[in-house]
Known about the structure:
Helix content is 28%, strand content 22%. By secondary structure, the chain is α+β, with helices and mostly antiparallel strands. The protein is globular.
Amino acid sequence: MYKELIEKAYEVRESAYAPYSNFKVGxxxxxxxxxxxxxxxxxxxxxxxxxxxxxxxxxKAISEGYREFKAIAVVGKKGVxxxxxxxxxxxxNEFANDIDVVLDDNNKEKIIKLNELLPxxxxxxxx
Length: 127
Ligand SMILES: [Zn+2]
């Protein structure tokens, strides 16, 4: 269903800068009008400066003027599904509470709604 999105996530995973964890992650975010923004994780010697693939993709899209999304694909190591971390779930929730989160391990695919990954979330409507 999200074949191209998954392929783009694997492509951008190659750009990951992960010299400390060696855990490379790629993400591809699909906008409402079918444009794809990709992102990889970028680590930092000062670890707090590290940014995940999902937020890299989202921030690229937001900075280009896109605010509405349908899905995000996330891929990590072969054979292991890599769900978004808590911070990424929260930041994605800011813009797209109901998007499909597409996980792929090079063998099987799993699609989960973001609001299932972040139930009873705190978001823009709670302020
Ligand atoms: Zn994350």
